[in-house]
Amino acid sequence: MNRDRRTTRSALGTTRRSATRLRRTLFGGLLGACLALPALPATATGAPAPEPTGEGRTAAAFREAARASEVPRDLLVALGYSETHLDGHDGKPSQARGYGVMHLTDNPDQHTLRTAAELTGLDPAALRRDTRANIRGAAAVLREYADDLGLDAAERRDPAAWYPAIARYSGAGNDSTARLYADAVYTFLAQGVRARTPEGEQLGVPRQRITPDRGRYEDVPSLDARPATGGKQTADASVLSEDYPPARWIPAAAGNYARGRSAAIRTIVIHVTQGSYAGSISWFQNPASGVSAHYILRSSDGEVTQMVRDGDTAYHARSANPSALGIEHEGYVSDPSWFTDAMYRSSAALTRHLADRHGIPKDRAHIVGHNEVPGNDHTDPGPHWNWNYYMSLVQSGGGLKLGGSPTDFSGDGKADVVTFTHGAAADVYAATSTGAGFSGTTVKWNDYFALSGEVPSSGDFDGDGKDDIVTFTRGSLADVYVGLSSGSAFAGGVKWNDFFAVGGEVPATGDFDGDGKDDIVTFTNDANGDAFVALSDGAKFGAGVKWHDFLAPNGEFPAVGDVNGDGKDDVVVFTQGTRGDVFVALSTGSGFAPAQLAHEFFAPGAEQPRVGDVNGDGKDDIVTFTSNADRDVYVALSDGSKFGPGVKWNDSFTPAGEFPYVGDFDGDGKDDIVTFTKNASADVYVGLSTGSSFGAGAKWHDLFGLPGETAF
Question: Which stretches make up the N-acetylmuramoyl-L-alanine amidase domain (predicted)?
Answer without folding.
Answer: 254-382
